[in-house]
Amino acid sequence: GRASGSSNRRERSCQGTTKQGVPCRITSRSEMDAAAPLRAGGSFCTFHEAQDTSAATQLALLTQQREARRCQGLTGKGACVTSALRYKVADPLRRGGNYCKYHETQDRSFSQLASQATQPPARRCRGTTKQGTTCRITSDAEMDAARPLREG
What pTM, to 2 d.p., does this model score? Predict the structure, then answer.
């Protein structure tokens, strides 16, 4: 057996179904944020928690939705992120902010702080994509593909 303390726990699978009617494949062993309720002993991942018909879960979801803070960010269609989402992108909204992680640069106070930072301007990739369009990755992107730009 494994020496890990969590190896004795029974794996829990999400009881929800996808829009295509297929059983969800997320389990309590997944490291995804969406699996947190399963790791805590729940029966549904965050993607499918609305399918949980228990009164307590439905009341909690309604309360979250009613009290949810919607991102004030501007995109082509308007932001759809709310503080009720259990994703890191919604953290600033849960802390009382008006913008999600994607749109926080639209917040004037954030922009002022960012402009005062001593970091050099972001480097932009000069390459093209497989489709022939200009690459949009910059050195300040938090992805592995941006590492060469960050390293010079």
Answer: 0.37
